[in-house]
Structure formats: C-alpha cells, structure tokens
Amino acid sequence: MRRDLHVGARPVLVLASTSPRRSALLAAAGIPFVIGVPGPEPEACGPPKQRAVERARSKATLAVAPRGVKAPILGVDTVVDLDGAEIPKALDRHHADLLLRRLAGRVHQVHTAHCLVDAASGCFREHLTTSTVSCRPVDEEALRAYLDSGEWRGKAGAYGIQDDAQSFVSLVEGSFDTVVGLSLAAVRHLLNAGPE
C-alpha cells in the first residue's frame, strides 16, 4: 500500500529512536513523524550487518508509540564494521580515542538497518543500506580537538561524518545519510511499499 508523504501535520511514521540526527534527517526531508520509545537492543551476535538488522527489528517491533498514533513504527540501527568486527559507541573519552586510532588510516563500512512495522498487524519490512568510509591518519592535534569537542558521544565508531569538529572521515561510496544514521531512500522505499 502506497503512503502519502505529504499529508500536512499528520505523522506518516513513528520513529522509534532517541537519536537527534535521525530526527533531523526526517525533518529536513519533510517526512512527518512523531517520536516513540524504542524497544530494547538485544545482545546481538553474528556479523555486523546481522547485528544491525536484529537491533533495528527489536527497536521497531517492541517500540511504544504515542497514545492514539496509528502510524507505522520505524526502528533503525547503525553499525560501524571494520574488517568484519563491530566498532561500538565509545564509553568515554579514552575509549573514543582508542576507537578512532583503530579506524585511522583504514577504510571501513557503515551498515544502517531499517525496520518498518505496521502498527495494526505487526507485519514488518526491512531494508539494509551500506556505505564505505575512509578515515585518514589523524594527527595528534586534530584528534585531541575532536575528542575535546565531545561530538563523538553516542555515535557508532566514536565519530559523526557530519561533525564540524572532524576533518578525517570521508565518504568513499554509498549515501552520506546512511553514515549519519538513517537512509532517507530506504525510509521512502519502506513507506511506499508498505509492510508485508
């Protein structure tokens, strides 16, 4: 079932995410949405792509939508993948330093999984996007400035490709918004196709 993305103030989806970056992407694209409470992240295992899919599914299928909102629920998860190993969010500044040094001078992938759940039936559709990112060797001054900025907090891989304070991460292939944390093309595809 095709869904109209231009319906005024009525939300076309519930975003089961606390990420301000995902909210900003949807808002900038003009897709009406409301925020829901995401379901818990499972202890995912397996390769990074599989972890992203499992987490997005859990966030969407176990989400709590605002009272009275019947729109489909979108769960999203982003994983940084370096040679088949997940690079997590940093626990603190020291951990962020270690993670960024691990990525420095390397090319890695970023997988963003999207799961759209029909609120009435519980049926869902999924879409995974992948982008390739390069992290050039970082000099000590640039690394220290980025760590001091705090912009690494809450981000997979301890960086945001969109962050003003960083100049060492760049997109090689794929979509920029996938790396930020939500592919607008994937969201539009899922909304237009409708849950199975």
Structure commentary:
This protein has helices at residues 20-29, 48-61, 93-103, 140-149, 176-180, 184-193, and strands at residues 13-15, 33-35, 73-82, 85-87, 106-117, 124-135, 169-173. With 196 residues, the chain is α/β, with parallel strands linked by helices. It has one domain (13-193): Alpha-Beta Complex (Maf protein). The longest helix is centred in the N-terminal third of the chain and has 14 residues, at 48-61. It starts with 12 loop residues before the first strand and ends with a helix.
Total separate domains? 1
What is the CATH architecture descriptor? Alpha-Beta Complex
CATH topology: the name is Maf protein
Please indicate the percent range of residues in DSSP E strands (runs of 2 or more). Answer: 15-25%
Count of discrete alpha- or pi-helical segments spanning 4 or more residues: 6
- Uncertain stretches of 5 or more adjacent residues: 1-7
Can you give the helix content as a percent range? 25-40%
How does the helix and strand content classify structurally?
alpha/beta
Mean pLDDT: 92
Kindly, what is the distance between the CA atoms of the first and last residues, rounded to a whole number of angstroms?
A: 9 Å
CATH structural class: Alpha Beta
Number of strands: 7
Large-scale geometry: elongated
